[in-house]
């Protein structure tokens, strides 16, 4: 089954006509009773689209019809942010006159910490990885090994992508937690966009599983606790929760002391907790193999999409890799979304309480999935009972000897 397409004959015609500057079409839809604040799955309203496309007449019409001048899309942008990025000065003035604000501009007034180019030895860098945004290098900054992430010029040269990216970095720079990779700053006066984070010398969870295969239960629980603590910090972020949206083994790194940290907030966005409808995003966002069913089906979603991905990560740690390896990731996501397919849980491998926890975490109803706070409590109990079992085993052996 394919994700649903938007029906241009339905109320979404308002959005289509607004983006095309079709005044008659917009009027017809509004007269039919379609709300001027109707939004698509990216929370983009007719006013966002008209402002973006420079359709002044449609902007006037929508404002007269009561469109919310400060509606926020899933990238945290208002219609004014769009009009500004595309230099539609006349529309900017109209939106400002109606009280329009631009959170992207406000954020850029609080820019990322800039690190002087001279302080970073990029000439003696070592390539350590390649992601969808660009290459990652090991470099020295003031004598300390750190990671330098370069951003592909196709992203860095696109005004809209760049400002969305800088917004993400500005958010990341405010985060501080032992299980979150520390953002250090952006490289000043660089011809490319490069940002710096702490360096984690043991690579990603993906690398660890590839090298070691399945992990023993006590290591899995310790790793799961690290990830859950980092994720709980993100989900409890104020004033808005941060949803990671792309929690995968590649986005979990291990430090020299053996602890795991969550990274790569390129896809995470601030969740509007008050929004009764939750967020909506395209099925193409995030990695299919770890994608929650509601995301694949392009439905509203919330923080629990990360809980679903977390369960699959924990399952992989027990198994030494993903289940359904031979199947294409998109097919796996499709079967999870439309046939409720889930990886098998053999009772020989999983402690009973762990099995129950995983089943809750990948529950088809997002409301039944536990919060990371609850997950931490459960994992601590499982860890305690595993430690007791181990101690009993040692004691038994001593008695026999
Ligand atoms: N801070 C870091 N310390 C050490 N290695 C890192 C660091 N950041 C990234 N890496 C390495 O570089 C690789 C690429 O990282 P990057 O975050 O760019 O992409 P990814 O997470 O693998 O994929 P995607 O961009 O699709 O999420 C990682 O898999 C990891 O091995």
UniProtKB/TrEMBL annotation:
PROSITE patterns assigned: ANK_REP_REGION, ANK_REPEAT, PROTEIN_KINASE_ATP, PROTEIN_KINASE_DOM
Segments annotated as ANK repeats: 42-74
Superkingdom to which the source organism belongs: Eukaryota
Classification via InterPro entries: Ankyrin_rpt (IPR002110), Ankyrin_rpt-contain_sf (IPR036770), Kinase-like_dom_sf (IPR011009), Prot_kinase_dom (IPR000719), Protein_kinase_ATP_BS (IPR017441), Ser-Thr/Tyr_kinase_cat_dom (IPR001245), Ser/Thr_Kinases-Pseudokinases (IPR051681)
Residue ranges constituting the Protein kinase domain according to the UniProt record: 122-382
Stated family: Belongs to the protein kinase superfamily. TKL Ser/Thr protein kinase family.
Pfam families from the UniProt entry: Ank_2 (PF12796), PK_Tyr_Ser-Thr (PF07714)
Coiled coil (UniProt feature): none
Keywords: ANK repeat, ATP-binding, Kinase, Nucleotide-binding, Transferase
Binding sites annotated in the UniProt record for ATP: 149
GO molecular function, one term: protein serine/threonine kinase activity
Protein name, UniProt field: Protein kinase domain-containing protein
Organism: Tetracentron sinense (Spur-leaf)
């Amino acid at each position: 089954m394919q994700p649903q397409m938007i029906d241009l004959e339905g109320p979404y015609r308002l959005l289509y006509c607004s983006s095309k500057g079709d005044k008659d079409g917009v009027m017809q839809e509004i007269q039919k009773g379609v709300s001027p604040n109707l939004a698509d799955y990216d929370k983009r309203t007719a006013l966002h689209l008209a402002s973006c496309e420079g359709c002044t007449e449609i902007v006037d019409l929508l404002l007269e019809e009561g469109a919310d001048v400060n509606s926020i899309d899933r990238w945290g942008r208002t219609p004014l942010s769009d009009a500004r990025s595309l230099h539609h000065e006349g529309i900017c003035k109209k939106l400002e006159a109606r009280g329009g604000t631009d959170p992207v501009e406000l954020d850029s007034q609080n820019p990322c910490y800039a690190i002087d180019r001279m302080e970073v030895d990029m000439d003696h860098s070592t390539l350590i990885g390649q992601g969808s945004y660009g290459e990652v290098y090991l470099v020295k900054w003031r004598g300390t090994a750190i990671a330098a992430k370069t951003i592909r010029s196709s992203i860095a040269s696109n005004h809209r992508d760049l400002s969305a990216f800088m917004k993400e970095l500005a958010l990341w720079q405010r985060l501080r937690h032992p299980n979150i990779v520390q953002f250090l700053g952006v490289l000043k006066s660089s011809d490319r966009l490069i940002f710096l984070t702490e360096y984690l010398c043991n690579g990603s969870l993906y690398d660890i599983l590839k090298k070691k295969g399945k992990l023993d239960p006590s290591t899995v629980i310790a790793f799961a606790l690290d990830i859950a603590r980092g994720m709980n910090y993100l989900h409890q972020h104020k004033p808005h929760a941060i949803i990671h949206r792309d929690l995968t083994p590649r986005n979990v790194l291990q430090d020299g002391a053996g602890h795991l940290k969550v990274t790569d907030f390129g896809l995470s966005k601030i969740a509007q907790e008050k929004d009764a409808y939750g967020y909506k995003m395209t099925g193409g966002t995030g990695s299919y193999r770890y994608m929650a069913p509601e995301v694949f089906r392009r439905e509203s979603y919330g923080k629990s999409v990360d809980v679903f991905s977390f369960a699959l990560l924990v399952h992989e740690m027990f198994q030494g890799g993903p289940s359904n390896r031979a199947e294409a990731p998109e097919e796996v996501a499709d079967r999870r979304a439309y046939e409720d397919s889930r990886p098998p849980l053999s009772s020989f491998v999983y402690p009973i309480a762990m099995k129950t926890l995983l089943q809750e975490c990948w529950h088809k109803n997002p409301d039944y999935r536990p919060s990371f706070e609850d997950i931490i409590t459960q994992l601590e109990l499982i860890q305690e009972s595993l430690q007791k079992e181990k101690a009993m085993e040692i004691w038994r052996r001593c008695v026999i000897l």
